[in-house]
Specification:
seven-stranded mixed β-sheet, Spore Coat Polysaccharide Biosynthesis Protein SpsA, Chain A, elongated, TIM Barrel, 25 strands, 33% helix, alpha/beta
Length: 658
């Protein structure tokens, strides 16, 4: 546990972060914030404490997120991330005991809807250091009887949002809340009392357990993922030869890390500085995942400072952050190792750095993501990474003096500007994100009879849902978050369609334009590189090999070709398309069949496209003879073009429970 690794970071190869090979396709890429730090205008225990805080700065308007929600959701979207962690401000929901503000509840509901429209999955945190004044005045977490009030708030928000929010954090950093508020006195209530910290710690774990069990018993509880967020601080002896330094490291690790983690495993909790453990009903196994917040390690001696403003000890080669603690990415792996015996998925729910001029943050991101990718490669179940923070904000006792954001915020004007580190994070995310999916969904059919005379084949139900949703289901497993659906001239039939976890954009034509005309008509919505599929085909291939081949082939288009189909419509040689002929009656010169999934450069559409009605296949495939790359994959695909094929596909889905 206390092997203090230090790497030569200037010799490390980061290429896997940029070529998209470091993380699995389903990895959760996110950013995180907390309500009081960004919303502005809050009245709670923190706003009351601010005049007595270290900085004495007032949160005031903060980032004015409450009034700039739509703008900030756009900022998240522009980073390309798939997940967003936010906290719900209890003092807004229940400003007075028993009085619930329906407008505030609706605000958070609207936030969730806006995120989902953009293909961003929300993660809600129910307690992130703040609570209403009326509850605080009753003693807050110092009194066990108060827990019911907080759980009632949690239940209300779960009832309103759990149909759309899958991921829930109960309490953020309980050890930090207890230590900073009741040992170091830097957070409210700003006292130093080991007796009170023991009470608060015990009740925090009681509250977490009760919240978890309550929400799990509610509607949607079984399908939601609910967990505790634990800040992991690595403690290392300053002098590794000194047994007193080792003893101090072990004591602090036990109080800050181990007692909390052990409680989740055993159901018995020994609060910091307590002599005995207490069994807490429902605590054992009360997390579906563990949220890991990681920032640094601390070097311990028996004479460590107990005031935050005194610089902590660092190794001579370590670099201090603006917060004065060292950048120590190696500790993130040690944090993972520490929580693995919980045997539940791990999410990095916070990781970032205080860096005013953004000269350290790009490297900080690279180091911590590389450490995370190595842990995954070693078999540790790390599912996601949420960078702290989306934007500069009110940093608790430090006020506005510490900046953690990927976006710079000019607080006087509220202008947001993406930093170099934001570009770096977005580039790594993009390298690991599947390109835009474009679905030719507007085609009608004659061979299916009446069912497709006026209804696009992509909307015909197969095994209980439209073909379009089967396509989107598969694409989502491949990491697609963003789909452009070309609806043809019957776009009104697609109104109201959504798909969980994906951002859908629909584009309609005034008249039938054919496959090529549909793409040209939507050219302003196409990304620079996109996956092209047909709305009446279900083609469950792995996208990653296709994308990798496209990269290496440096082709204007790479199509998937099967050699196992009954008929043939093309000829390929040496990995290139040589001839495409869908009307040929003789297959002697043909050796493959277009399987329906391609990856296309937008420049190809612009080069060969034109207005009016035309065929993408017959125009572009012929023009790219010798240039288009071929990805061979004999995965069976399902074309619902005839009643017989439709019946076979439905039988397949039922037999395989897809």
């Amino acid at each position: 546990m206390w092997t203090e690794e230090h790497r030569q970071w200037d010799t490390v190869d980061y290429s896997s972060l940029k070529d998209g090979s470091a993380f699995p396709k389903e990895f959760m890429w996110g950013v995180a914030t907390a309500s009081h730090q960004i919303e502005g205008g809050n009245t709670n225990n923190w706003s009351a404490f601010e005049p007595r805080s270290k900085s004495q700065q007032l949160s005031g308007d903060a980032c004015d997120h409450w009034n700039r929600r739509e703008e900030d959701v756009t900022l998240i979207k522009e980073l390309g991330v798939s997940h967003y962690r936010f906290s719900i401000e209890w003092s807004r929901i229940e400003p007075q005991e028993g009085h619930y503000d329906s407008k505030a509840i609706q605000w958070y509901s609207d936030l969730v809807d806006e995120l989902l429209i953009q293909g961003i999955q929300p993660m809600a945190t129910l307690h992130h250091f703040t609570q209403p004044l009326w509850w605080d005045e009753r003693g807050g977490f110092e009194k066990e009887e108060n827990i019911t009030g907080w759980v009632n708030f949690c239940s209300m928000m779960f009832e309103h949002l759990s149909d759309r929010v899958e991921w829930w954090c109960t309490i953020n950093e309980p050890a930090v809340y207890a230590t900073m508020g009741y040992v170091l006195g830097e957070f409210p209530p700003g006292v130093r009392s080991f007796k009170r910290v023991r009470k608060v710690s015990l009740n925090l774990m009681r509250a977490h357990a009760r919240c978890y069990r309550t929400l799990k018993a509610m509607k949607n509880g079984d399908k939601c993922q609910i967990g505790l967020v634990k800040n992991i601080n690595i403690f290392d002896p300053y002098r590794r030869w000194n047994p007193l330094h080792w003893m101090q490291a072990k004591i602090l690790d036990g109080m800050f890390n181990q007692c909390w983690l052990k409680a989740l495993r055993t159901g018995k909790f020994k609060p910091p500085s307590a002599l005995f453990s207490k069994r807490i009903e429902g605590l054992r196994g009360s997390s579906d995942f563990i949220g890991v917040n990681y920032y640094t390690h601390l070097l311990t001696t028996p004479f460590m400072p107990t005031k935050v403003e005194i610089d902590p000890l660092i190794r001579p080669w370590e670099q201090r952050t603006d917060f004065r603690y060292p950048m120590y990415a190696e500790g993130l792996r040690r944090a993972f190792d520490m929580v693995t015996n919980l045997k539940i998925p791990i999410l990095v729910t916070e990781n970032g750095v205080a860096d005013d001029d953004d000269d350290m943050r790009p490297e900080h991101i690279r180091r911590h993501l590389l450490i995370t990718s190595e842990a995954i490669a070693d078999g540790i179940d790390v599912r996601g990474f949420y960078h702290w923070s989306l934007m500069d904000n009110f940093e608790w006792a430090e006020g506005y003096d510490q900046r953690f954001g990927l976006y710079h915020v000019e607080f006087e004007t509220q202008k947001r500007t993406l930093k170099e580190s934001g570009h770096e994070y977005a580039a790594i995310v993009k390298a690991h994100t599947t390109p835009q999916l474009v679905i030719m969904a507007g085609g009608l059919g004659t061979r299916l009879g009446e069912m497709s005379e006026k209804t696009p084949k992509s909307l015909i139900e197969v095994n209980g849902k439209p073909m379009l949703h089967h396509i989107l289901d598969w694409a989502k497993t491949q990491g697609c978050m963003n789909a452009l659906v070309l609806t043809g001239h019957l776009g009104e039939q697609f109104e109201g369609i959504t798909h969980p976890g994906m951002a859908l954009t629909f584009h309609q034509e005034k008249e039938p334009l054919g496959t090529g005309g549909a793409l040209w008509n939507a050219k302003e919505l196409l990304e620079q590189r996109f996956l092209l599929v047909w709305g009446d085909d279900w083609h469950p291939i792995e996208y990653k090999p296709l994308i990798e081949l496209h990269h290496s082939a440096d082709a204007p288009l790479t199509m998937t070709v099967t050699q196992a189909h009954d008929s043939k419509n093309l000829r390929h040689e040496n990995g290139r398309l040589m001839l495409y002929d869908k009307h040929s009656e003789s297959s002697e010169t043909l050796n493959g069949y277009e399987a329906g999934t391609s990856i296309v450069e937008k420049s190809t559409v612009l080069k060969y496209g034109h207005s009016g009605k035309w065929s993408w296949e017959e125009t572009v495939y012929s023009a790219l003879s010798g240039e288009a790359a071929v990805h061979l994959d004999d995965t069976a695909f399902w074309d619902m073009g005839t009643p017989e094929r439709l019946a076979l596909f439905e039988k397949f889905l039922k037999d395989t429970s897809v």
